[in-house]
Design brief:
The complex is a heterodimer.
Chain A lengths: L3 E4 L2 E5 L4 E7 L5 E7 L6 E6 L5 E4 L2 E5 L5 E6 L8 E8 L6 E3 L3 E6 L1
Parallel strand pairs in A: 2-11
Antiparallel strand pairs in A: 1-3, 3-8, 4-5, 4-9, 6-7, 7-8, 9-10, 9-11
Chain B lengths: L4 E3 L2 E4 L5 E6 L6 E7 L6 E7 L2 E4 L8 E4 L6 E5 L8 E8 L7 E2 L3 E5 L1
Parallel strand pairs in B: 2-11
Antiparallel strand pairs in B: 1-3, 3-8, 4-5, 4-9, 5-6, 7-8, 9-10, 9-11
């Protein structure tokens, strides 16, 4: 299957700091998604991206679909304690295909 | 409810038993996906339905795993003769169409003793 590598693997930051994480693949994807997962719950969709170069925001979250279509980036501004969780990227090669998930970035926000 | 519903939330079974996991997708969603998530890992694709048709089952790890969606809404994932390596969280997701973002349920945590 496809491998999506996320970095960093984990982050420990102070409340109020900005966060950046990324996801890279050896394949070209048509769609990129970003999810957040908290313990005991399923992943919750944060942002969906459909076009190379697209930049989309959802509150304090901003994600970009990389120009090469092989990567995507997620930024969180002014982090707060409730941002704690594991963030997953997911990519789809073509419509109707499965989504491949990254390895996750674990975020800890220190109040 | 408005979201994807999975039951049971937790299932403990002895090795060798059969288990059945249920998924109620969001009403009207055509596409339904099953994923397996091991501890500390991202979800891994198992199988995909469009309405009642199983279009992709390439992720099912063995012939002990079987999924169905007979009427194009509720789906069941069945695992026969369970083994310890089947222990994981099984997630179900649905989307309006195959290309649309998937919305996940909270999963069934399966533990095989």
């Amino acid at each position: 299957g496809q491998q999506l590598n996320q970095s960093p693997q984990s982050m420990f930051i102070q409340e109020g700091e900005d966060v950046s994480m990324n996801c890279t693949s050896s394949s070209i994807f048509n769609t990129w998604l970003w999810y957040k997962q908290e313990p005991g719950e399923g992943p919750v969709l944060l942002i969906a991206l459909y076009k190379a170069g697209e930049l989309t925001s959802n509150g304090r979250l901003t994600a970009q679909f990389g120009i090469t279509r092989k990567d995507s980036f997620l930024n969180i501004s002014a982090s707060i304690p409730s941002d704690v969780g594991i963030y997953f990227c997911a990519g789809q090669l073509y419509a109707g295909n499965q989504f491949y998930f990254g390895t996750g970035t674990s975020l800890t926000v220190i109040p | 409810g408005a979201g994807v519903s999975q039951s049971p939330r937790y299932k403990v079974a002895k090795r060798g038993q059969d288990v059945a996991l249920r998924c109620d997708p969001i009403s009207g969603h055509v596409s339904l996906f099953w994923y397996q998530q091991a501890l500390g890992q991202g979800p891994e694709f198992l199988t995909y339905f469009q309405n009642e048709a199983q279009l992709d089952k390439s992720g099912l790890p063995s012939d002990r795993f079987f999924a169905e969606r007979p009427e194009g809404s509720v789906s069941t994932l069945k695992i026969q003769r369970t083994q310890q390596e089947d222990s994981a969280v099984y997630l179900c997701a649905s989307s309006a169409r195959g290309s649309q973002p998937q919305h996940f349920g909270d999963g069934t945590r399966l533990s095989i003793l």
